[in-house]
Amino acid sequence: MKAHWHHGLYLVTHRGMLDEQKFLGIIDEAIAGGVAIVQLREKLVDPGTSYKTGKALKEMLKARNIPLIVNDSIELAKAIHADGVHLGQSDAPIEQARRELGENAILGLSLNTIDDAQAPEAHSADYLAASPVFPSSTKLDTTEPLGLTGLRTLRKHISQEKPLFAIGGIDEGNAQAVLDAGASGLAVISAIFTSKTPQATAKRLSTIIDQYHANNKTL
User: Fold this and answer.
1) Reduced 3-state DSSP string for 34-86
2) What does the pLDDT read at residue 143?
3) How far apart are CA 167 and CA 162, in angstroms?
4) How many CA atoms lie within 13 A of 1 on its CB side?
5) Hey, which of 12, 111, 190, 216 would disulfide with 116, CB 3.0 to 4.6 Å?
6) Measuring CA to CA, which residue among 207, 205, 198, 197 is closest to residue 13?
7) Are 151 and 170 in contact (CB under 8 A)?
8) Helix 47-64 and helix 20-33: axis angle, to 10°?
């Protein structure tokens, strides 16, 4: 897998009203623009459709050496041979995911509060996601936004070696400020899926991240 995924642009999918061809096409364009890791997030889709889409997406990403993460479902991650799973605070524990998916699986965990960052689960995850940083139209089942101040405080309670993605309302206008506040990578949904030019948008966001790390020599 790409060695820099943990410091890169993380695309979280949002199907909305898109048919599968258009849905996969946007992801393909975003990858061409520099997306380093993809999470399949299917909140309102039946299991059969999620499985079919997951299999197709896994093949697309495998050919490009990009990790596929499944949101919430360890079962779906196993079924489509995904590279890992992303869990929320109310999902299955990290230890269960590790047992079922193996030592090489990439396991992510959402953090909503400082207490979440200090819990043992946060130490066991391969990466963490501060969620949400700003209000988001695609992540409505969340707690109060952290804001930049909250993100900065959260980062202080996490090892600097632990990858921390920021998600929720991230776009080109606030990307630099989010990185400055402590995120090591950016996770986006609407910024890509509502863009008329997904590849160009992904390229600009990826460039912001790459330049940040080059300037701060964190890679």
Assistant:
1) CEEEEEECCCCCCHHHHHHHHHHHHHHHHHHCCCEEEECCHHHHHHCCCCEEE
2) 78
3) 16
4) 20
5) 111
6) 198
7) no
8) 30
Q: Which of 105, 103, 149 is nearest to 130 (CA)?
A: 149
Structurally, how many domains does the chain consist of?
1
**Domain housing 81:** 5-216
Q: Write down the pTM of the prediction.
A: 0.95
- Give yes or no for a cis peptide into 132 (omega within 30° of 0): yes
AA letter at 163: P
Tokens describing residue 84? 């890992």
Q: Which residues, 6 or more positions from 92, have their beta carbon under 8 angstroms from its beta carbon?
A: 74
Cα pseudo-dihedral 24, 29, 32, 38, rounded to 10:
-40
202 Cα distance to chain centroid: 14
Burial tier of 157 (Cβ tally within 10 Å: 0-12, 13-18, 19+): middle
Q: 3-58 pLDDT, tens per residue? A: 579 899 999 999 988 999 999 999 999 999 999 999 999 888 899 999 999 999 99
